[in-house]
Amino acid sequence: MNGTEGTRWNTILFAVVAGYIAAFHVGKLPPAMPVVRAELGLNLIVGGWLVSAFAATGLALGIVAGSVADTIGHRRLTLIGLGALAAGSLAGSFAETGPSLLGARLVEGLGFLAVAVAAPSMVAQAAGVGDRALVLGVWSTNVPVGVALMIVVSPLLLESSGWRGLWQVTAFVTAIWMVVLAAGTRREGSTGQRQAPDGALARNVRLTVSKFGTWLLALCFGLFTFQWLAVMVWLPTFLIEERGMGSAAAAVMTAVVVAVNVLGNLIAGWLLHRRFPRWLLMAGSAAAMGFAAVGIFDPDLSDGARYALCLAFSAVGGMPPTALRAAVPSFAPTPAQMGTTNGLLVQGLNLGNVAGPPALAAVVTVAGNWESAVELMIAAAVAMTILSLGIGAIEHRQRKTASEPSR
Q: Which pTM value belongs to this model?
């Protein structure tokens, strides 16, 4: 079936909200970090590991988690992920030391990874072919929307209940949605994926990594996050140290820049829904991000123009995630490896998350100026453009093969 006729909107709603709630666990830490560090006596290194726990689990286990989703069922792993997020957050609220909080945070990271690889597969399978790009565009808003909501709500909960109360409220909300999702999609659970054969997990991984196209998707995702997160992480520092802004103003301006990323997610979904070429969307986004980076780090540009380019950089940067996730059903070896392919993309995404900020910091430190960051950003943008052309070539070959009459 095509289009809305074959789209199960209730399943999509349950899965998308699960993504937003999973992102709450990412967004709750930054506002609470000063209080957590003060109460538990944590140094910057431990604090950094608390932030990096989610990226570390995704980088190490993304494709394995995706294969588990394909083996036991996407709905089931989404529920397990929500349960792990709730359990980890609740356990973390009772932590008395840095290592115990880090252990709980790793459990949350595993839960987040499970939702990140399984829920988008639920969304893709529940959508009719004509609606798939559109709904995956909505799914791609999960991290910016979920993190932004928690940045807004966290200060209120921190003031009234402290960071432990924030952790407990987040655990409660997650557990409630786990129950809601289980009840709302129980019919799919009873008619869903049959028991996978022995060895399916290893077979899913082997088939996925044997496809050149899936590697192009993962590397392209990594190059995107390399650029986007590097700028978002260091933008407050740049605004304060180079442009002389106050910390509060820099925080608000950065939050707005992060939030406009959602616009790119939605616009990309609409364009793909209208059959705009995926490769052109990604290549154009890469080029636009590289061009914007030149102005962002130009010392002679006015602050107003610089901030406009920051907004454009983030908005355009919302397009590649949607395009890449929408490509998964076409690039997965078979529908049975959709979760595994999502898992490989998650590994690529987290490779960029881990490498981008320190790479930019190293370049700026060695050169002694922020202008030197431009070369790094342009190199990543050019590489992403080249990979996008490769993705387009594979899609062209797929269409040509599909149009040939069977012999």
A: 0.84
